[in-house]
Amino acid sequence: MMTSPLSRLGLLPARSAIAAVGQFCAQGDLQKNLMTCVDLISGAARRGAQMVFLPEASDFIAETRDLTAQLAQSVDGDFMKEIQQAAKDNGIWVSIGIHEQPSPSEMPYNTNAVVSSDGVLVSVYRKLHLFDVSVKDGPKLLESATTARGDRVAEVVETPVGRLGSSVCYDLRFPELAQALRLRGAQLISYPSAFTELTGAAHWEMLLRARAVETQTYVFGAAQIGRHNSRRSSHGDAMIVDPWGTVLARCARNTNEPTLATAEINLDYLDKIRREMPVFNHKRSDLFPDLAA
To answer: Are residues 214 and 173 in contact, defined by beta-carbon separation less than 8 angstroms?
Structure first.
């Protein structure tokens, strides 16, 4: 079921609007990361964006499990309160990846939170697929050791740039989730991420464009970049992809400084693609019922 805060206000999303993706290098300093996020939010608003997408783990990327447990906050914590205030002050919607600590006795979730331009938290999605991977000469990460797994697909939320379905990072490798969001009415899908340098160089753009083409949606890949600590670094290359698979805008990869990229989101163009190539009308639910429900 789609939630519709715009409808409750008697408003409809514009058929064309500007959106932004952000890129920066979060570290273990929660306050410094917050200041960066607020600067990106205000910068996106100054560029005329009606919504800005910020990376996974925008609150912090910690070097140790103990520091993760120490820094993680609930969605009612001070970090999110400041993000909500920044959204309200700048009149812009925000999608942001955070560590969500539901209670002191539980591991945090890897969460994609959506905040409206009046500062209201309208959506909380908890990452379904955890990155437990060991790649030869590459990343060896066990996300499940520090992070709880979500248990439900996000509700699609109506925003000023279109109907948004939320995911997080490693979810990008699971096309069935993107398909489910499209079937729920998504026109946009967000993937706040912190792809490793090895997997990012090999697969990041390819996967974003594939999900955009398969679902005929605008895809937003906000990204962490650079060296976070002695154990962790990220690929970057934040981008916006249109429903035809074209990269409309991307952040520079030659700097770890916070950057933004903006693009026009045109829902008339999206409708044209879906009308002229109606792939979702051609699904063989008789043969693949689990994937077409």
So the answer is: no
Q: What is the pLDDT of residue 1?
A: 41
Residues annotated as catalytic (active site), given as ranges: 56, 127, 169
CB-CB contact of 155 with 122 (8 Å): no
In the structure encoding, which two tokens stand for residue 185, read together? 């009415």
What's the token pair of residue 181? 């969001």
Which pLDDT does position 14 carry in this prediction?
Answer: 57
Phi-psi sector, 210: left (phi>0), alpha (psi -120 to 50), beta: alpha
* Count helices and strands in the chain by DSSP H and E runs: 9, 16
Token couple for 7? 């409808």
Check: CB of residue 94 under 8 Å from CB of residue 110. Answer: no
Cα separation, 242 vs 262, whole angstroms: 12
Q: Do the strands 51-53 and 93-100 form a parallel or antiparallel pair, or are they unpaired?
A: parallel
Position 159, amino acid = T
Query: Would you state the pLDDT for residue 2?
Result: 46
Tokens, residue 231: 């154990």
Please report which helix (H) or strand (E) contains residue 126, including its range: strand 121-126
The residue written with tokens 């390819």 in the block is: 206
Q: What is the pLDDT of residues 52-100, one digit of tens each?
A: 999 999 999 999 888 998 999 999 999 999 999 999 999 999 999 999 9
Tokens of residue 197, six digits: 């340098």
| Non-local CB neighbours of 284 within 8 Å, separated by 6+ positions | 292
Alpha helix ranges (H) inside the chain: 5-8, 30-46, 65-71, 78-90, 175-183, 197-199, 205-215, 267-276, 289-292
Q: Residues 23, 222: contact at Cβ < 8 Å?
A: yes
